């Protein structure tokens, strides 16, 4: 007898994909549509005790990304984004102020390697906090609490189950939880929660209880895709079918080695560019590198490989400096 599958979504939100019943849930846990790979303790130990071909290179590396300090954002108009390290971005689009996966400092058991380019107090009048999933390097309690103290009007838009966790820290924060292909539309900005090939977990026994995903933002004639954390899967090819070709794609490139271990959940610089090509993205911006040492490759490896491969393929990319103001335009 097969596993009983149920389906979950937010019945109050619009679903943009025809015939989508909701996210599949097996034994109370969300699952991916492809590659349901689970690395047990054995594989984790195998990785940790396997020889790393780049171990010496990592030890000798003296790489620190350049930082442009952000002292104020109040004078900036129009559509733009600022990379803050790892998957954290501040963005203005269609008159809305948005924060993606904010992590201002260290995370449990992992020290931050790059400087955070701003004092968090510069982030004012935030409309939306977008959280891709519940992992500590994307959902950091101290950062969220600090942000909400300065932005009590801020609303969180996230996957099913994640909002409930955040409201445990900030009971007065409004939370809108979504399943994949569900959309929030405030009349100026459309934000759609989309599939990612990943997983969720914050403690020993809560794996798969909160949904992970990506985002598409549309407003002021622009479209921007934010990939969250993801392995390579077939969810990229459907983006132009659902939304047209995105103007910008923010895609992870780091924490990708060794491939046998990381491949199901983290795209490599090569996969990232393939995903960009499949989406027909006009400009691709890399993320998920240079901030936390989470894998075998040196911190400088992903952006170097990404830039070289993009040049070979003729893919248009923008690799922002930490704190750089990147104007968004058609």
Structure write-up:
There is one protein chain. With 330 residues, the chain is of the alpha/beta class. 20% of the residues lie in helices and 23% in strands. It is built from eight helices and 17 strands. It has helices at 41-49, 55-60, 141-150, 162-169, 239-243, 259-262, 269-279, 301-313, and strands spanning 5-8, 14-15, 23-26, 29-30, 80-85, 88-93, 96-100, 128-131, 155-159, 174-178, 182-185, 190-194, 214-219, 222-226, 248-252, 283-287, 325-327. The strands form three sheets. The chain has a seven-stranded mixed β-sheet, covered by helices on one side. It has a seven-stranded mixed β-sheet with strand order 10-9-8-7-6-5-17, covered by helices on one side. Helix 7 (269-279) packs across helix 8. It is globular. The mean pLDDT is 94.
Kindly summarize this structure in a few lines.
This protein is an alpha/beta fold. The protein is 20% helix and 23% strand.
Name some characteristics of this structure:
seven-stranded mixed sheet, 330 residues, globular, single chain, alpha/beta
Q: Kindly state the percentage of residues in helix.
A: 10-25%
Q: Strand-residue fraction? A: 15-25%
Biggest β-sheet: strands ordered side by side in the sheet: 2-11-12-13-14-15-16
What is the tally of beta strands? 17
Query: What is the terminal separation in angstroms?
Result: 52 Å
Q: Summarize the main sheet.
A: 7 strands, mixed
Number of helices: 8
Q: Unreliable segments (pLDDT under 50, ≥5 consecutive)? A: none
Secondary-structure-based class equals: alpha/beta
